[in-house]
Amino acid sequence: MPDSRALPATPEEPLVAAKAASPGVPPVWRAPRPRHRLGVPMSWSLPWSLPRSRQRRLALLIGAVAVPALALAVTAFWLTLRVARQVETESGRYNAYLAEMVIEAFDRELVDEVRGALGPAEIAARDGEDTEAIRRALASRVRLFEAPQFVPLQELEGYSLVTVDGQLLIYGEDPSGQREHPFAAMLLDGPDGVAVGAGGWWFNPRSFLAEHLRAVVVDRLPGNTRMYGGLESTRHLAISVTDQVGHELAHVREASSDRTARTARTEPMRGPFEGYAVRVSATPTSPVAFANRLVSIEMAFIGLLTLVLLGATFVGARYIVRQIELVNTKTSFVSNVTHELKTPIAVIKLASETLELGRYQTDAERDKFLRTITRESDRLAQLVDNILDFSRLEAGQRTVQLAPLDMREVVNGAMDSFRLRLEDGGFRYDVVLPDVLPQVLGDSRALQHCLLNLLDNAVKYSRDRREVRVALNAGEGMVRLAVSDHGIGIPAEDQDRIFDKFARVETGLVHTVKGAGLGLSLVQMLVRAHHGRVEVASAPGEGSTFTILLPVWDGGRGAIGERS
Length: 564
Known about the structure:
Layout: E1 16-18, E2 28-30, H1 52-117, H2 119-126, H3 131-139, E3 147-152, E4 160-164, E5 167-172, E6 183-189, E7 195-202, H4 205-220, H5 230-234, E8 237-242, E9 248-252, E10 265-268, E11 277-282, H6 287-357, H7 363-395, E12 399-401, E13 403-405, H8 407-424, E14 428-432, E15 440-442, H9 444-460, E16 467-475, E17 478-485, H10 519-529, E18 533-539, E19 543-551
Parallel strand pairs: 14-16
Antiparallel strand pairs: 1-2, 2-12, 3-7, 4-5, 5-6, 6-7, 8-9, 8-11, 10-11, 13-15, 16-17, 17-19, 18-19
């Protein structure tokens, strides 16, 4: 008694099981709906396989969309990069300007320090005190510097002068070479208002720069009325002082990443700070850093938009090519089907007229015409069945009645129907059936239809060596039904697409055989509805072997075997 339990649908083939009306009724399986539209395989065909006129039109359409899109993208990239470069250039100019302002601020800081410490020495000089008294007055402020020094006016030869905000600063190195640090001093006036010499100190510029950088940046720069931008312009800039070998002595604020390093500027210091340098660079919150992030986002957006436009162009071109192929496929299908219908109809009509008019001499000739009518009627019926089954499978209306089945009965039934055509075609056929064969769950009519399609292909594509072999065997949980011929064979590059709907190999001698391109596609869909698969082994000029593999039914428990 057939098992009425529904077999589980596999993930690859989402079959829908109809509920049994009563116990004992075999399960009914609906064929899967197609995964592509209009029966056209979802495969990309090469545009250059189209006629030249359509190639030109397609190229014109693609160019009309892709070229402006690429032109706009390139222009947008160029303008964005140009704006970003201009922002970096202006930022670099301001950083160089600010570095100069910091250098001037250090000069004023040194002048103010020296001027503030010279108070006692100036009093002593105006009172007409001697040189030793002036040196003792300078020594009273030595805590601010390293060592005091008074140089009479007639001994100032060899020292340098610089004017800072109208005040004269005297600096220079120790002529004797005993001191490694420079000397910074200012003129001292005597009782008559005439300069008597320069008073100052030897000082360490390294320590001075490190200790006074924050005061210069935070206090002195904002108070400079001549500085462009004021305090707000310095809040997003990192300022540092480096020594002769580039080592940082001190800094105010942390610099940004390497993305804004192109805007950093380093300016050398002058006067008593010669050999040192001031470096100004952007911080992570600076406008140039924000502009760089904005440019990156804009570039990514432009690139994404360009990819979307090009992708839309590609999809549109692919859709157009597919529609053109669909039109060509429909035209070819109608032409092939018309030819396939007209040929048996013409043969049947001719044979019927011959019989009707009595244009035969013997009973053997009469039987021959009757056999011809029968053969061509079967051929016509098979073609119509193929088209109807294909249409129903496309619409998801074809059902497969699964029941325990002996595949030997399927083979015998199909061979009884096809034997006449094999004999009339002069074919030598061989049927190999084992004595014992496990059952499968299947639909006898559907599986016979599959076998008839494979036999029909074997007959159509055979040439000189007219031999067909049908073999059944079982193993590894599968029943195998193989149909072999010695026909023209199938190239390896075409074996993957021969199961596509309307697909026909147009090389070699295949194009001389008319067909609708539905047989193998129908075979594959029906075999998949049985949870099986179809395999092909073929070589051009040597023939082909199509094998249907169906899972063994395990005696009523509903198992369908292991699928690979």
